[in-house]
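Observation: inputs received (chain + nicotinamide-adenine-dinucleotide).
Thought: call the complex predictor directly.
Action: predict_structure
Action Input:
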Amino acid sequence: MDLTDKTVVITGGASGLGKATAEHVIKAGGTVAIFDRNEELAHATAKELGQSAAAFNVDVTDEDSLQAAIASVVETFGAIHVNVNCAGIGPAARTLGKAGPMAFEAFKLVVNVNLFGTFNTLRLCAEQMAKNDPVNEDGERGVIVNTASVAAFDGQIGQAAYTASKAGVAGMTLPIARDLGRNGIRVCTIAPGIFETPMMLGAPDQIRLPLIDMVQFPKRLGNASEFALLALQIMQNPYLNGETIRLDGGIRMQPR
Ligand SMILES: NC(=O)c1ccc[n+]([C@@H]2O[C@H](COP(=O)([O-])OP(=O)(O)OC[C@H]3O[C@@H](n4cnc5c(N)ncnc54)[C@H](O)[C@@H]3O)[C@@H](O)[C@H]2O)c1
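Observation:
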């Protein structure tokens, strides 16, 4: 899809991988709607990105806030063409820790944001995309880009909830692509390795160095702009569909 004058909804777009994707979309001629529950940061990011960006206060787990924001995007920009799902959380806890079993609520929270929040957003965006006139000779009406993690495949100690949520995102990619093919909507998922986002930038060497050691090449963490490059390729390449793509420098995560 040519992004010129297209509207791209990015959850978690206030920070990290989502923010980098927003920057690249705007450079490619698109308009960005940032859906983030961090209202202050979302507005600061939209201001930084300029007049092609707008911020919306959204919790992806809350249907009402999503419905309201989607209605507002459609009213303001006329349509939704692309949905990039980057909103996510990753607190770690062992299944059985020193203080006892992992709190069930903690497990549910991670799955609720990462998996249910992704599906909640994409189903409502797809509803809008299906109303678009086709944008190319294939009949394409929309593109969805989800974010899983390499933890979907090789989750580490303490990552049961995070891995369950991200494996769910990877696993639902093909059936969603099958569901939405008749509507002219493609869906792919990116499974990032370890990236330099606000979360990792502050980490001390004793955390960063063992992670970098697990990367094959290049021996460093990923840059958010490299995530954005792949997200843009998925939006722009009409034959990418139904696939989860690792973006990880060849990393295979060890148990810890
Ligand atoms: N950074 C990495 O190394 C890495 C690796 C693999 C996967 N990921 C995944 O990539 C995605 C983006 O990660 P990041 O590093 O950019 O993180 P980040 O913390 O910089 O950004 C995540 C954004 O999501 C928002 N958010 C969280 N919960 C939300 C909710 N319920 N509703 C709306 N917004 C919400 C946060 O406010 C934040 O702005 C996440 O899904 C994460 O699991 C990141």
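Thought: report the result.
Final Answer: The first strand starts at residue 7 and ends at 11. The chain has one domain: 7-244.
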